Amino acid sequence: VFRPQCAGMSDFKSSMTVKILGPAVLILLFTITWAASQAVSTAFDRPVLAMEKNRLLNVFFSLILTFFGSISAMAFSLFKCSPNPNNIKTLLADRAVNCYEEDWYGMLGLGVVGIVVWCIGFGLLFAWAIFVSPKRFSNPDFQTRWKFLFIKYRPDVHWWAIVFVIKGILLNFGFLIMKTGIGQIFWFMTILMAYICLAITWTPWRHLWVNVLDIWGHLCLWLVTSTMIWF
Length: 231
What we know:
By secondary structure, this protein is mainly alpha-helical. It contains ten helices and three strands. Strands 1-2-3 form a three-stranded antiparallel beta sheet, with no helix packed on it. α2 (22-43) runs antiparallel to α3 (53-66) and α6 (108-136) runs antiparallel to α8 (160-177).
């Protein structure tokens, strides 16, 4: 289910709840899958059928990191309000909902939890793993669990995943502090250009052409964003 409305959750609260709790559903699916593999392994006395915990965590956290920008967008969606000519701010995700009114306040707690757990929580967890990696990387369990954080980057830029996480948070944070469209455009351009400059300086990816593709892709995004100024 990619759109909550397709599952009959067309009202604001149901739709927003599904969006913010999306990562929790993913955690549940991974947990059920792991438990099922353990049960099958025990039932048939085949240890090879049991999923290895650290490998499964590596896959799960890899998905979280890959889609961190989208997860941040969902977590911040409740706080992305836009002004209107009648001086009433409405939610960008649902123009029928007025910000700072009863329906909005009813979802405030869940929205805060989403930001704290999915954005700050996962971000700090990844930062912790990177920070302790020099001392713990000789541990095979640590290598297997956190491989996704390091395998794509050069050893001297093993911390680049932190930049990726910060970029995802800052791009969405601009909707909160910039209330005008032009301000949000310049915010996007600033964050994208900062990332481009850092990528050029550090060339974090192991292969040269991946660095070129990353820089070129972000430069294209910057150019497309800049054209929105005319509208």
